[in-house]
Amino acid sequence: MLWKARKRIWCGLPWTFTVYSFDEERFYLDRGFLNKRQDEMRLYRVLDLGVTRSLIQRIFGMGTIAVKSSDKTLGDFEIKNIKNVMDVKEQLSNLVEENREKKRVVSREYMTDDDSDIDFN
Asked: How far apart are the C-alpha atoms of 28 and 38, rounded to whole Å?
């Protein structure tokens, strides 16, 4: 495991049953107390990462990473209320790029012109 952290409550205490972790190739999401569930996603399936930090999160040194993915089970999800959010996002971003290069995964972005009022006739 390269990184592992427990989701924290609003004041920064790790009193939840959600654990996030990732290694060189996979992201793991463990949830539950009595009924445990573990979801796993290959890092090359991550399409985009973003960070949000509310005022309370900034006060307690936390943040949330929004993950957009092509994974069928997890889809788009958030890594909520984690410490050192910018460092974790950078580490995850670098691993995603390495995995996409290693697996030769290419995402295609389509650029469109929103000037729909222009008449080309």
From this structure: 7
